[in-house]
Amino acid sequence: MKIEQIKSYSAPERVVKQFLRNLETGETKPGQKLPTQEQLAKMFGVSRSSIREAMNALSMMGYVEITRGRGSFIRKELPNDNHSSSFPKGLFENANLYHLMEIREVLECYAVEKASAMASEEKIAALTKTVKELEDSRKDLREFSVTDLNFHVAIAEAANLPELGDLLKGIYKIFYDKLPVVFVTSREEKVEKSIDTAKFVLDYIIKGEGKQASRCMRNHLSSYNEELKDKLFNEVIGK
After folding, report:
1. What is the per-residue pLDDT across 36-64, written as a single tens digit (0 to 9) for each?
2. Contacts by residues 50-53 (CB-CB < 8 Å, ≥ 24 positions apart)
3. Rounded distance, CA 93 to CA 170, Å?
4. Considering just the CA atoms, what is the radius of gyration of the chain in Å?
5. Range 97-236: architecture per CATH
């Protein structure tokens, strides 16, 4: 297994990215048993707590299976790319992530206002179904992440802005790829708030109250954006 020494301040994120790179290059194979956490800590030059956090994130992302008494394995069936977009692969690839998050918030709050004014019964039914799926997936973070993205795409569709839905998939994938540990753990801690605010968004769309729906969408996004924004703030000010 190819190993690079890792700086401790971002160890879990870098461990995850190293594993994903090794999977892409074929240096790590599906079904392969991983060394113990103690061995991995020595190999990567980081603490065991950093390895444990990285393994938990990889498990929630669907790449690693952790079995008590047997150890950790790369899953034989790796997760599909649920965030595919028709936008060019390099679009926003080098964008400042903090700015990208703010752009997404502006666009989504606009979309939810527009959906409140023009969503058809068919689109509202689709949104209602997605919110129900969001509730049902609260125990499975991987499924919840996919369903949450579907919720945002459904709002774009309800606003007759299908291109926005495609754009959101691309933005989602950038964050998922570049900050996997923070992105996953921030969702894990804020699942219930995310579900509650999604219900409010839907309720105000049904009532046709665009301003209230926009406010609730901002709250919905903040349910997992706060931790990401803290992580990215130094980037935007150049530190």
Report:
1. 989 999 998 888 988 888 887 788 777 88
2. 50/6, 50/8, 50/11, 50/12, 50/15, 51/15, 53/12, 53/181, 53/185
3. 9
4. 19
5. Up-down Bundle (1.20)
